[in-house]
Design goal:
Order of helices and strands: HH
Distance between the termini: 18 Å
Shape: globular
Number of helices: 2
Structural class: mainly alpha
Radius of gyration: 11 Å
Largest sheet: none
């Protein structure tokens, strides 16, 4: 579900978020990162959705340090 929301945001399609989740692409998290930008490149795009999906499936994905692991 998270990957689909990120992909819908990246494709300029509607998505819904429930409180207390921050809005994707807009909200700055306490760590200074943008909600949904899982690879810390300051853009929320389909690559972020793919990384979320791979993480949820137990598959490998590449993170650039010091970007935290997905779900950390």
């Amino acid at each position: 579900m998270d990957a689909l929301k990120v992909l819908r945001y990246a494709s300029s399609l509607g998505y819904s978020q429930k409180e207390p989740c921050e809005k994707i692409g807009i909200a700055t998290l306490p760590n200074g990162k943008i909600q949904g930008d899982v690879d810390c490149n300051n853009v929320v795009n389909s690559v972020d959705a793919l990384k979320v999906l791979r993480s949820a499936s137990g598959l490998t994905y590449v993170q650039t340090e010091p970007c935290p692991d997905i779900g950390a």
